[in-house]
Automatic annotation (TrEMBL):
It comes from the Eukaryota. HAMAP family: AIRS. One of its GO terms (molecular function) is phosphoribosylamine-glycine ligase activity. It comes from Prunus persica. The keyword Nucleotide-binding applies. One of its GO terms (cellular component) is cytosol. Residues 116-224 form the PurM-like N-terminal domain. This is phosphoribosylformylglycinamidine cyclo-ligase. Keywords: ATP-binding, Ligase, Nucleotide-binding.
Length: 402
């Protein structure tokens, strides 16, 4: 159960102690906590949702290599893969396929629900094993930004303006000071995306999580007029792919990142080779929230499709916005590959195809636009923000690189 508040209330959190569904059998030692800010309150009930983890929710499959007798990948150099790190994209895809049989119509980056002349657009996510690095570095102030970003960046791909966000914070023993840091990050993320933190839940579950650790998830709901939905249906051959830069790894691929870090012999306190920041700082850089920028670009016309580059990288995410029979060619060298990705690839001896399927590689959002709109967007990108022409739409499905 979640308690909703008026839109002017910055934060409310309610943690149910009753009214549980009959199928729920909570551990008797589980404590549910409630923090409420002032304002008028009305009880509402949250629906049941089912979401794969951030690490694989947006990927269909992964490029993997067979093992040789020594157990290394038979790639000629024993390079690491996402599957080596414990993330099985194929299993995630199979689960999504089975869910689709029970709930036809799911898919895309956000779910659309008709409401008069508009659609409500919803998305849910977590931050994956980036949390492990938060525990190791002690950087908890920005992980909430990541949490909000993963949902609002999804729903803005439909052209929807986020309305509100709700979060779930679970821990073995509640550390109020630590939890406050996390929630402050969530508030910051909501401010960046111009939406309201409407409520959430904090669960204290002894013996379920390791001491000092916690888990996060959340969801966002936005709205878009039915005649303004960005759905990719009118994409044609020759349309241009515009890339908006990322801040780093964002919130996907960290199981592989952590495996690379272990192989490197370096610690999170060591400098990123050749750079003036530590590995911990580079890897914990918060996910860019693209909401205001993308909505501004959409408002000027010419945007036909938008892809959030998360798990699955370029290879699996960009095709999701294309009509059947169309794909993309990506121009190699058309944007700046961030140093952190170069380090990950070099230390992990990771093949290019694996990098492009796992990470955002420095581009966190891709817009498919008309040629005319591309000129304006790129010119604007010389001022208020950066933007790169990274490819074009071609005949034939999938993504190729040239």
């Amino acid at each position: 159960m979640v308690t909703s508040v008026n839109p002017n209330t910055e934060l409310s959190r309610c943690f149910a102690s009753s009214l549980r569904p009959s199928y729920s059998k909570p551990n008797s030692s589980q404590t549910q906590l409630c923090r409420l800010s002032s304002g008028s309150l009305s009880n509402t009930f949250s629906g049941l949702s089912m979401a794969p983890s951030t690490e694989f929710s947006r990927s269909r499959r992964i490029f993997s290599l067979s093992k040789n007798e020594s157990g290394e990948r038979a790639s000629g150099h024993g390079g690491l893969t996402y599957k080596d790190a414990g993330v099985d994209i194929d299993a995630g895809s199979e689960l999504v396929r089975r869910i689709a049989k029970m709930a036809p119509g799911i898919g895309g980056f956000g779910g659309l629900y008709p409401l008069g002349d508009s659609y409500l657009v919803a998305g849910t996510d977590g931050v994956g094993t980036k949390l492990k690095l938060a525990f190791d570095t002690g950087i908890h102030e920005t992980i909430g930004i990541d949490l909000v970003a993963m949902s609002v960046n999804d729903i803005v791909t439909s052209g929807a303006k986020p309305l509100f966000f709700l979060d779930y914070f679970a821990t073995s023993r509640l550390d109020v000071d630590l939890a406050e840091k996390v929630v402050k990050g969530i508030v910051d993320g909501c401010q960046q995306s111009d939406c309201t933190l409407l409520g959430g839940e904090t669960a204290e579950m002894p013996d379920f999580y390791a001491d000092g650790e916690y888990d996060l998830s959340g969801f966002a709901v936005g709205i878009v007029k039915k005649d303004s939905v960005i759905d990719g249906k009118n994409i044609v051959i020759g349309d241009v792919l515009i890339g908006l830069p990322s801040s780093g790894v964002h919130s996907n691929g960290f199981s592989l990142v952590r495996r690379v870090l272990a192989h490197s012999g370096l610690s999170l306190k060591d400098q990123l080779p050749g750079e003036a920041i530590t590995l911990g700082e580079a890897l914990m850089a918060p996910t860019v929230i693209y909401v205001k920028q993308v909505l501004d670009i959409i408002s000027k016309g010419g945007v036909k499709g938008v892809a959030h580059i998360t798990g699955g990288g370029f290879t699996d995410n960009i095709p999701r916005v294309f009509p059947k029979g169309l794909g993309a060619v990506i121009y190699n060298g058309s944007w700046e590959i961030l140093p952190v990705f170069k380090w990950i690839q070099e230390v992990g001896r990771i093949e290019e195809a694996e990098m492009m399927r796992t990470f955002n590689m420095g581009i966190g959002m891709v817009l498919v636009v008309s040629k005319e709109a591309s000129h304006r967007i790129l010119e604007d990108g010389n001022g208020a923000y950066k933007a790169y022409r990274i490819g074009e739409v071609v005949r034939g499905e999938g993504v190729s690189y040239s």
